Amino acid sequence: MDLGQLGDVHERARENGARDGTPIVWSKRHGTDPWINLFFRADEIVSKQRTTWRRYAYALVVWLNFLEQRGRFWYEASKRDYTDFKHWRMADARNYWRVEGTSFDTDRAGLKRFYTWASGEYEVFNPIPSQSAQSGGGFGPGTGRRDPSRPAGAPRRQVKWLLRKAFEQWRDVGLRGYGFDGLRPVSQHGFNEDRNTAFVEGLWGTGLRLEEWASVLDVELPPTPVTSRYPKAWLSQACAKGRRYGRNYRIPRAVVKAVAGYTDSLEGSRAETIMRARRAGRYERVPGLVIVTGHNPRTRSLKVRTSHGSSATMSLDVLGPEERLRLFRETEDGLEPLAVWLSVDGMPHRAHSWENTFATANSRVAGAWARSRWPGVDDLEAEERERRAAQCPLWARPHMLRHSYALVWYSILSAVWEQRLRGFTEAEKHAFQEQFGDVWYQLATMLGHRNPQTTRDWYLAPFTALEIDYLMALVDGDQREAVDILLGRLAANSELVLSPVAADLGVLDHSGDDE
């Protein structure tokens, strides 16, 4: 797409109400369709996060390309078109880029949102099947009914967890260059290793979502050295999911130290990338650059210099992920970003770019696992190497670390809760829970869920029947070892919990059973 054909893009954005990051859907054959692009400026979409905009835009583009091959416009689509699209996307042998049910479920959600809006705005037919209110009162969690437009392979949520030892193995092999034998090749230079390790440790240790942790500024981190095991930090309202409220969260001391190592002005890789960006003059060319001259931790606000040279005070709670990329301070050595996480070129690292880091790490883990399991695999044809590497049982995605955080703390809180209420009658337990909440309330608070039912239904439903006495027996000892033993028992017969792997044996058996 030649942006020159659109004229002054920024002027167009100001005129039509688009915001920073608003998608523009463009067709080589038909150009832009104002009806489609208006969708991304609708009130119910503008309030969504940029990651949601991207997902919806991608789903629309794939759908529009499919319809274009059929010679149909989006407003001419029928239910048959949707059914055929679903088959092509998931099952058609002629499509080499088929997806699983969970990926198509994302497409479906975006298309359903678009056509719900378009049917009201333009009175076009909605081809995405849905259950009418008259036919049974809706569907979703707790109703026992399934949205008929969803693929059969897509459960309510494909939740998976990593044991701590499995996470450490994935981190060491995928991000630090170690082999499954625990040895590190001499050729491994480890550039950005401290950044990537600190980032994934933060996801595991804080339970924050990818964009939330990726958007943290250096002024929002606890000052070092820390004395508390879990110092408190504040998640900005504009960075939290939904942007409705900010909240406190805890950062493990080990994570604070890891981030401090990465940001160290002498030994951390962050300082090196900043010097590289300064030499190239990148910071001065940042569009809309904002100079920060002060920070008030008590009011959680920044003092900034405006384009007119005057000072203004901005609350951190109103600064979203994109705005934070433009925040810089002046130092004796030059400009410096307030963003903690920087790319190789010294520019603030965008949240979605971390997906590439995880993909690269997964590829390294799979390759190392295949080489350990089948010596000489590198001599095989590329297709065969990929087929064998694809069998690797160890991998990670950003949100899996949040799920794992939830499961670890569910185990700990369950044990603590049971001990706290030991000796209480049922009536006393109920009264205590009414006053102080229960495990689900505490865990929902830690995860930033407004409704504890969300935590129960979407994150930990398979584990709610766990015997508290069994938890108690395990958590009396060392926390990490105890929780890993507990989750290892559950992992033995579950495909949802990923365990450490041995190169020659596959998934390690934590069940302790002889078969």
Describe the structure in your own words.
- The chain is an alpha+beta fold.
- The protein has helices spanning 9-16, 34-38, 43-46, 50-69, 79-90, 101-122, 164-174, 193-206, 210-214, 253-263, 269-280, 321-324, 354-373, 382-389, 398-420, 426-436, 439-447, 452-459, 468-475, 479-491; strands at 26-27, 31-32, 161-162, 232-235, 247-250, 290-296, 301-305, 311-315, 327-331, 334-337, 497-498, 501-502, 506-507.
- Helix 8 (193-206) packs antiparallel against helix 10 (253-263) and helix 13 (354-373) crosses helix 14 (382-389).
- The protein is globular.
- The N and C termini lie far apart (60 Å).
Work out the strand percent.
Answer: 5-15%
Count up the helices.
Answer: 20
**Tertiary shape:** globular
Radius of gyration: 25 Å
Enumerate the spans where pLDDT stays under 50 for 5 or more consecutive residues: 131-146, 467-479, 505-515
Calculate the mean pLDDT score and round it: 80
Helix proportion range: 40-55%
The largest sheet is:
5 strands, mixed
Strand order of the largest sheet: 8-7-6-9-10
Report the span from N to C terminus: 60 Å
Report the count of strand segments.
Answer: 13
Structural class computed from helices and strand pairing: alpha+beta
Question: TL;DR of this structure?
Answer:
By secondary structure, the chain is α+β, with helices and mostly antiparallel strands. The protein has helices at 9-16, 34-38, 43-46, 50-69, 79-90, 101-122, 164-174, 193-206, 210-214, 253-263, 269-280, 321-324, 354-373, 382-389, 398-420, 426-436, 439-447, 452-459, 468-475, 479-491; strands at residues 26-27, 31-32, 161-162, 232-235, 247-250, 290-296, 301-305, 311-315, 327-331, 334-337, 497-498, 501-502, 506-507. The chain has a five-stranded mixed beta sheet, with no helix packed on it. Strands 1-2 form a two-stranded antiparallel ribbon. A two-stranded parallel ribbon has the order 3-11.
